[in-house]
Write a structure and sequence with these properties.
Layout: H1 12-21, H2 23-40, H3 45-66, H4 80-91, E1 97-101, E2 104-113, H5 119-129, E3 141-149, E4 156-165, E5 168-180, E6 183-190, H6 205-216, E7 228-232, E8 245-253, E9 257-263, E10 269-274, E11 277-278, H7 320-340, E12 353-355, E13 363-366, E14 374-377, H8 384-397, H9 408-425, E15 430-431, E16 441-442, H10 466-469, H11 474-486, H12 498-510, H13 519-536, H14 545-555, H15 572-576, E17 781-785, E18 792-796, E19 803-806, E20 821-827, E21 830-833, E22 847-851
Parallel strand pairs: 12-14, 20-22
Antiparallel strand pairs: 1-2, 2-6, 3-4, 4-5, 5-6, 7-8, 8-9, 9-10, 11-13, 13-14, 15-16, 17-18, 19-22, 20-21
Helix pairs in contact: 1-2, 1-3, 2-3, 7-8, 8-9, 9-11, 9-12, 11-12, 11-14, 13-14
Length: 852
């Protein structure tokens, strides 16, 4: 064979034959053939055609013959959330945009047709259809309507829902569904999922109030309103892992109103925030007579009137603060009236009260639960932009949805909105430049000297001062608002949106803010609304306005819309770098090829649980680990004969079919849950099965091991010296220990200690037929009370959840007191009395009040 002859294995025909018979070898040979042919520079037309046909045939055969796997192999089924997302993508008339936090879609933006007679029904139907996307399949979690708005001037409607868990409100668990006719175009907000909580508190609301007072160092602070039980989870307020608690919400005031959330089981203070709004400046006090906090909203002092809507007292003509206040208050009123058709701060012709020369540091709006609804200024602090700033705090107080806690991102959001409307009303970038203290912030360029406030999320200031940096971190959102109004980002040669469109956009979006709003939620709400207005041409918004808004927020590192250079409504990066479609892009995705929007990484190794072979890093692969998400290298499993779940994650340790929270003997099988003495401790594990314990947790009166005589019912014990220590356990019998005495009764009846939603007298947490009234249990209740050391039998017959008052036994002469009332709660299993040393003296109002 001469050197010019082509070997058989270098021919196109050989390559194609191999492609058919053995695809991998054929593809390799085809690749080599291309290299050889390129070197020869002798490619004929026939060879080119043959080559093209071979490539098509080879790839097809390779896919068919080489990629099929074993016969009958099925693709991995999508989980419920992913399946719901795919359904939403198919139903939406434009590609949806989503933002996930802890696996929950805090933002969904699309165009999904829905059915329903009105906006509320359509919003409900939408959330019901895609409930798995929103992780709302738990029957203990429910949504109720908080507020509806619209159709507004732009034709849009908004329905705000709040979440409950077994009837208790979830603080900041809120979501707003926005509709354009029969289409849902956005949802914004956060909800909890997979909540398992014991709803029976271990501490009373009065105890929670004392804890709140102690925490704030305000022992005599009065309580505002009713202390209520709710579910609190910090993850609804910030990007942190979920950690739900039953909590008492306590509101108190001692010159400054505070709200404190106290864990209803441990007494830990979970969160606290002020309800007032104040500018954070360091200036000298003018030392005049009063301020709203110290002077009861100025009700306790006589303050000369300077002006009203018609007249001005000429005696104040030389008082610059007085002259400015009269003029700027009117200007602020007409700014909101003319620009947004809002009639005063409350949109109901509310009287605007302004006080100057107040004994405060600068300026403040005083509203919220104090209900002053006024603006006060220190000397030299009356300026138009400051007036509009404080007026806007009043507008925020009277939104239809719930109020923002004045702390962290929520407080900074409110400060930014107050700054934004001040910027819209008063030209110029500097805030407060006309005050005695000079400018306090640069709205347009927050990072400029001398202010040096953050202007992007990477510079977010984490601090405990200033309620979490509300007056510094607001600069991030200020910068975004300025960019929306003044920048066009070089697109289309179009002018910026301008202040007028910014004002309309922000005023409209402001009404939908809920209590858990984070910066990203505000961004998402504004972006969704701008996109809808761009689509509809509302308020003259051009088609590319939505792109401007996305890019403005992207510039301050909120969202990634700034990479949408073609303004097609989808971020460019999502086109190429979100291979699993979970909304997390590029290197940020800890499972780039597996759908996992929650990005959960239990062991913190950088590989998400969805693709990590050992989620808990205990050295055992998930496929053989009996608790794949919980670190348990010992693999202990006490009921291994019943199930394969390790003790560390087994909800039913004893295998009797009841979870730990429902089982009255979690380590002893007892499917019948027999409990002869009704102390919430099953007979099989109760050391005293015939005598009731103190509480459902069964702590004994003497706080010792099981000794005969220890198992005495809490409200039925001999206490001859009245020190609340049972005689059987009292080392100093006959001596009254003051330190051990129970304090006096609270001022009002306790909150129901045992919530009973269905009214069958069985506490919700222990009700095997929760939601169903068990008529067999509606019978007279026999209560044994021992308030004075002498047993007293009382037969009562009342309706569930009603109040019952029982006369007390007469007091011994030495114990005669003035005005005694003991408070407690009663249920089918017994009585819990707050103060067991109460008796009736000469005062007829003495009584024992019980909630049955």
């Amino acid at each position: 064979m001469s050197s010019s002859t082509t070997p058989w294995y270098r021919t196109e025909r050989a390559a194609i034959v191999l492609l058919v018979l053995f695809p991998p070898a054929g593809l390799y040979l085809m690749w080599r053939f291309q290299a050889w042919d390129s070197r020869r520079k002798q490619v004929t037309t026939g060879a080119s055609v043959l080559w093209t046909a071979g490539i098509i045939c080879g790839i097809t055969l390779a896919i068919v013959l080489g990629g099929g796997g074993e016969e009958g192999e099925e693709p991995v089924a999508a989980g419920p959330q992913e399946a719901a997302l795919r359904e939403l993508e198919a139903d939406s008339e434009r590609p949806p945009d989503l933002y996930f936090q802890n696996g929950f879609p805090r933002f969904v933006h699309g165009s999904v047709p829905v059915q329903g007679a009105d906006a509320v029904e359509r919003a409900r139907n939408f959330l019901q259809t895609y409930q798995d996307l929103y992780l709302q399949s738990d029957p203990n979690l429910a949504l109720a309507v908080r507020d509806t708005r619209g159709p507004e001037e732009d034709g849009l409607e908004h329905v705000a829902f709040y979440q409950t868990y077994r009837g208790y409100p979830v603080y900041a668990g809120e979501i707003v569904v926005s509709l354009d006719g029969d289409q849902v175009f956005a949802t914004v907000g956060g909800l909890l999922s997979d909540v398992i909580l014991n709803t029976i508190p271990a501490i009373s609301p009065r105890e929670a109030e004392e804890i709140a007072r102690d925490d704030l160092g305000l022992p005599d602070a009065p309580i505002f309103g009713e202390t209520g039980l709710l579910v609190f989870d910090q993850s609804l307020l910030a990007d942190v892992p979920p950690d739900p608690h039953m909590a008492w919400e306590v509101t108190l005031d001692d010159g400054k109103t505070m709200r404190v959330f106290v864990d209803a089981h441990t007494g830990e203070v979970l969160f606290k925030h002020p309800l007032g709004d104040y500018l954070d400046l360091e200036v000298s006090d003018a030392e005049n007579e009063a301020n709203a906090a110290d002077d009861g909203c100025y009700w306790w002092s006589w303050d000369p009137e300077i002006c009203d809507e018609d007249d001005f007292d000429s005696d104040y003509s030389g008082d610059l603060d007085a002259v400015r206040a009269c003029q700027y208050a009117k200007d602020a009123y007409y700014f909101y009236l003319n620009k947004f058709s809002r009639d005063s701060y409350d949109n109901d012709d509310g009287e605007i009260e302004v006080f100057v020369h107040a004994t405060i540091d600068n300026a403040s709006w005083v509203g919220g639960s104090i209900d002053c609804d006024l603006i006060q200024f220190a000397d030299g602090w009356v300026a138009y932009d400051i007036m509009v700033h404080e007026f806007t705090h009043g507008v925020m107080d009277f939104r239809p949805t719930s109020s923002l806690p004045y702390k962290n991102q929520q407080g900074a959001l409110e400060e930014s909105l107050a700054d934004t409307f001040a910027y819209l009303a008063d030209p110029g970038c500097l805030m407060g430049e006309d005050t005695a203290g000079g400018a306090i912030r640069n709205f347009c360029n927050p990072a400029a000297s001398p202010f040096l406030d953050p202007d992007r999320m990477s510079d977010f200031l984490v601090t405990s001062a200033d309620h979490g940096g509300v007056h510094t971190n607001c600069g991030i959102l200020n910068r975004a608002a300025y960019l929306i109004a003044q920048y066009n980002f070089g697109l289309f040669g179009s002018p910026p949106l301008g202040k007028i469109k910014l004002g309309k956009l922000y005023y409209s979006a402001m009404a939908g803010i809920t209590s858990g709003y984070q910066f990203i939620d505000w961004r998402n709400a504004v972006v969704a609304r701008a996109a809808q207005w761009s689509q509809n041409g509302t308020h003259g918004f051009p088609p590319h306005a939505g792109c401007f808004v996305r890019m403005a927020f992207a510039t301050v590192e909120l969202g990634d819309g700034g990479t949408d250079t073609d303004c097609d409504g989808i971020d460019d990066i999502l086109h190429f770098h979100d291979d699993d479609g979970d909304g997390v892009v590029g290197l940020a995705d800890n499972c780039p090829l597996t759908f996992n929007p929650n990005q959960k990484d239990s062991d913190g190794d950088g590989s998400g649980d969805a693709c990590d072979p050992d989620d808990d890093n205990d050295g055992l692969l998930d496929t053989v680990d009996n608790c794949p998400g919980v670190y348990n290298p010992d693999q202990a499993n006490v009921d291994s004969h019943l199930d394969d779940d390790g003790d560390a994650c087994d909800p039913d340790l004893d295998g009797d079919g009841l979870s730990r929270s429902q089982d009255n003997c979690p380590l002893h099988p007892n499917p019948d849950q027999a409990d002869s003495d009704g102390d919430f401790l099953g007979d099989v594990c109760d050391p005293c099965p015939d005598v009731a314990g103190e509480t459902y947790e069964t702590s004994f009166i003497c706080f010792s091991e099981d000794v005969p005589g220890d198992c005495i019912y809490y409200a039925v014990f001999d206490d001859s010296d009245g020190d609340t220590i049972p005689d059987d356990c009292d080392p100093t019998l006959g001596v009254f220990e003051d330190a051990l005495a129970v304090v006096g009764p609270p001022e009002k009846l306790l909150y129901p200690i045992f919530p009973d939603a269905d009214g069958d007298t069985i506490p919700d947490a222990y009700d095997p037929t929760f939601g169903v009234f068990d008529e067999a249990l509606e019978e007279p209740l026999e209560k044994v009370l021992k308030p004075d050391g002498q047993a007293k039998q009382v037969d009562v017959e009342v309706n569930p959840s009603s109040y019952l008052k029982i006369p007390l036994a007469p007091c011994p002469p030495a114990d005669d007191m003035q005005g005694n009332t003991a408070y407690g709660s009663a249920d089918r299993w017994g009585v819990v009395v707050t103060d067991t040393h109460m008796c009736r003296d000469a005062f007829p109002q003495d009584e024992l009040a019980l909630l049955v």
